[in-house]
Amino acid sequence: METHYTRLEYLFNEDVKKIQNSKVCVVGLGGVGSIAMEALIRSGVGEITICDFDIINPSNINRQVIAKENNIGIKKVDVAINFIKEINSNIVIHTYSEKIDENHLDFFDFGFDYLIDAIDDINAKFLIYQECINRGINFISSMGTAKKLDPTRLKITDLKKTNYDPIAKILRRKCRENNITNKINVVYSDEEPMKIEKLGSYMPVVSTAGLLCSDYIIKEILRS
Questions:
Q1: CB burial class (10 A; 0-12, 13-18, 19+) of residue 86?
Q2: What's the pLDDT score for residue 1?
Q3: How many CB atoms lie within 10 A of CB 198?
Q4: On the CB side of 159, how many CA atoms lie within 13 Å of its CA?
Q5: What is the pLDDT of residue 108?
Q6: Cα separation of 91 and 94, whole Å?
Q7: Residues whose CB falls within 8 Å of the CB of residue 168, separated by 6 or more in sequence, listed in order
Q8: What is the rounded CA–CA span in Å between residue 26 and residue 36?
Q9: What whole-number percentage of the chain has pLDDT above 70?
Q10: CA–CA gap between residue 199 and residue 206 (Å, rounded)
Q11: pLDDT at residue 164 in the model
Q12: Residue 189 — φ and ψ, nearest 5°?
């Protein structure tokens, strides 16, 4: 009899249970985070924490899988709950809809073991890094995907080895200033950003970043 995970069981056999027993957090449900979330759910993650303070806007529709014309103005976490439940009604979902800062890090208390950082706020990203390192949480962080057009230029590497990415540059400096020497795995593109003023985004690029993030987490779960 076929189940949600029949095709995964062909690949991973009994190790599928590791994924089903895993607890993962996705911070940011934009173009990168929403795709990462969907890949995790469809791959069998049994418990997920989703964090985003924002609502669905019309400009999200070109790249965010949860964004549709009929849910503009609704909180992303509320839309994501229904999105997840339509895929797997048995999954355990925790939501957090506060803007992350020094006073709003209590979503970590949901007790997950893995985290995907898919937000743009650099100070919030760095707080997440610190908290994950202090708590021993395995995480991966997405760098900037705006102003880029080539999904084949995306890769997973150490933050220290990035270039052509203004977000990564600031985060490298913050790590040096705070004596953080841990390896920080990131998804980033070595494509030079387009020289345009606005933050244009292209779904094949942002979705590839999301898939790389989710693949990293799933492979780490399987290796555990």
A1: exposed
A2: 83
A3: 8
A4: 26
A5: 98
A6: 10
A7: 143, 144, 159, 162, 186, 188
A8: 8
A9: 100
A10: 12
A11: 87
A12: -110, 135
Spatial neighbors of 214 by CB under 8 A, at least 6 apart, are 35, 36, 37, 39, 40, 43, 116
The CA distance from 23 to 20, in Å, is: 9
Find where tokens 């979705």 sit. 207
Chunked into runs of 10 residues, the chain (224 residues) has average pLDDT values of 92 96 98 98 98 98 97 98 97 98 97 98 98 98 97 98 94 97 97 94 98 98 96
> Cβ(162)–Cβ(143) under 8 Å?
yes
Asked if 80 contacts 34 with a C-beta cutoff of 8 angstroms, the reply is: yes
How far is 40 from 44, CA to CA, in rounded Å? 6
pLDDT at 53: 98
Phi, psi of 155 (to 5 degrees): -160, 165
User: For 33, which DSSP code?
Assistant: H
55-68: burial string, b at 16+ Cβ within 10 Å, e else = bbeeebeebbbbbe
pLDDT of residue 138: 98
d(CA 140, CA 138): 7
H or E stretch at 24: strand 23-27
Q: In residues, how long is the chain?
A: 224
What tokens were used for 102? 């020094």
C-alpha triplet 170, 174, 175: angle, nearest 5°: 120
Q: What angle do CA 24, 159, 80 make, to 5 degrees?
A: 30
